[in-house]
Task: inverse folding
């Protein structure tokens, strides 16, 4: 086989080979997740079967939820109709002064006014049951990643690639609080809603 | 020419899978991105003997989805309600490069990070990358040096 033929085959086979090896390693590292019927990936598959993809439909909406009494480190959830991965499609961590740390595709991890959560048809404010100092540290930790890249399918490991849920999950894991009790490959915003570490301050929607 | 296009799409789609999975193994995503650039360079080299117009047609067909979505982002045209999803589609299209793009996670202009601007201009950078490499005679370069 001459060099050109070898390179031609290399070009076509290198990525399928990497997919195969990565898949085997990922599955063997996460057997319990693949056996868990409540894992986020199965929610995606079920939603896809119903014709639902992505974060749902951004409708013109204005919810009148009150943000009064929020503490630094509280969690804010928002959801559009027909979201593929649960009731809520987005999440942010309250950072004081009417602002949340969140992650979105065109801004990466960033600080933004909490008011945009009024655009969601589903909205919920959660209080993490922890010492205020711990919650403050979690918010500060999340703020360290401002500007970092957003990617919707960001897996839990690593600190270069984030999605909105991973930032908050990691911020609390670093403080010793595991908000994802399923220990999934990805964290959906709904995982925070169902966590035993949180209480619902108030919510609106269905 | 058709074979070049088919090969590029096959490579791109399989690199998408490798790119997504590599995020689970921090560091591997960067290696995947570098391999992707190398493989595209090899593919460009395969097209060296084709006339320039054919090279341009190949690269435009290969990058057509990205050019379409980048056009929506730049023009802010809400074509068929796709404006809101265009940047997501661009990001998925460039999943093979997600490792290198993640290194551009710094805010540069108008509160937006560098990777955002790279995503929008990557279709054009990719076209230039392929066409330029497909126009260089590497054998001659190596012999000269």
Result:
């Amino acid at each position: 086989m001459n060099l050109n033929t070898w390179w031609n085959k290399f070009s076509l086979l290198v990525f399928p080979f990497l997919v195969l090896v990565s898949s085997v390693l990922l599955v063997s590292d996460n057997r319990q997740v693949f056996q868990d019927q409540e894992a986020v990936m199965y929610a995606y598959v079920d939603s896809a079967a119903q014709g639902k993809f992505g974060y749902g439909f951004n409708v013109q909406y204005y919810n009148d939820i009150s943000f009064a009494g929020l503490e630094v480190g509280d969690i804010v959830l928002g959801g559009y109709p027909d979201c593929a991965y649960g009731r809520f499609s987005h999440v942010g961590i309250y950072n004081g002064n009417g602002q949340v740390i969140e992650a979105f595709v065109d801004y990466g991890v960033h600080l933004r006014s909490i008011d945009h959560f009024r655009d969601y048809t589903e909205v919920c404010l959660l209080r993490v049951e922890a010492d205020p100092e711990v919650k403050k540290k979690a918010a500060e930790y999340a703020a360290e990643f401002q500007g970092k890249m957003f990617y919707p399918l960001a897996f839990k490991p690593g600190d270069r690639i984030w999605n909105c849920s991973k930032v908050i999950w990691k911020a609390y894991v670093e403080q010793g609080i595991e908000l994802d009790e399923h220990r999934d490959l990805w964290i959906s915003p709904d995982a925070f809603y169902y966590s035993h570490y949180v209480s619902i301050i108030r919510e609106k929607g269905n | 020419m058709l074979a070049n296009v088919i090969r590029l799409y096959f490579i791109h789609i399989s690199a998408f899978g490798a790119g997504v999975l590599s995020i689970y193994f921090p560091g591997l995503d960067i290696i995947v991105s570098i391999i992707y650039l190398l493989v595209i360079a090899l593919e460009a080299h395969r097209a060296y003997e084709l006339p320039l117009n054919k090279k341009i047609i190949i690269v435009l067909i290969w990058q057509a989805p990205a050019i379409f979505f980048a056009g929506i982002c730049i023009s802010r045209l809400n074509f068929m309600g796709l404006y809101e999803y265009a940047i997501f589609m661009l990001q998925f299209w460039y999943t093979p490069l997600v490792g290198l793009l993640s290194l551009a996670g710094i805010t540069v202009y108008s509160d937006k990070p560098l990777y955002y601007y790279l995503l929008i201009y990557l279709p054009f950078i990719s076209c230039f990358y392929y066409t330029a490499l497909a126009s260089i005679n590497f054998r001659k370069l190596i012999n000269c040096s």
